[in-house]
Fold LysR family transcriptional regulator.
Amino acid sequence: MKINSDNSNINLRHLRAIHAIWQEGSFVRAAETLGVVPSALTEAVRQLEENAGHALFDRRLRPPQPTALGLQFLEETRPLVEGLDRAMQRLRGGARLAHGSLAIGASPSAISGRVAPALAAFRKAHPAVAVTLYDDIAERLATLVSDGVLDLAIAGRAGTSPDLAQVEIGRDPFGLACRADHPLALRGGAIRLADIDPQDLIQLDGDTGTQRLLAGHAGLPEAFLAGNLSARSTVAQLALVRAGVGVALLPREAVLLFADPALAFVAVADLDLTRSLYLLQPARRPASPAAERFLALL
């Protein structure tokens, strides 16, 4: 856009001055409204009239009235002044979190212990902000963060991308998920891999970070990955465990997802495997005020 140098000395202060006079019907009252001395207001109008080459107000009348050209200019510039006022109100409201939105992603196992407490505190402090929570696997959440659909996500590590920043925020040991009345849970204390029947294991979908970690762990016998019962999600897996259909190898926070007393997490002494949780944020886009506040609570 080409800038007209003839107008470079005219700014919002000049427009505020003439619109205040038009609204208040008096130079003195307009100066009071704007919080300036009358002489400063008069000088602003003089500069604008000098630039235009024509009077904007007929000062012989009481109260002063816009000239024909002045009235035309006032009407043409009113949407600019009012639009700026509305934009500033929205800007200040957004900064105060008086409105706005927040879209968060999380792997299901990160919701109860990490995301939910921070989200409860955020909602209490900023009830006017619309919040949406997405639950999915890390790779899909990472794509949504990179594409701007999500402000941030808490999940396992995703593939590297120049559009994505990943910071580790916690680690979670793997163990056995089983019913609280399962014989392995009733033993008390840690068990060993040899105590688990591989045929009882409920596998998780191979696209999930959890299953990839298990598949990549050298210390896990191959039989522990070859079961013929699998679930597409952690929630479905836990539902099957709760129903007594089988057991599963999962991170601790996943097992404690619903704080269900019917489920137990049993440590496995010879399974040296942890799942890292990461904060996924856009690398090339600044965080919104809502996202910054949620992160502070998280």
Observations:
- The longest strand covers residues 164-179.
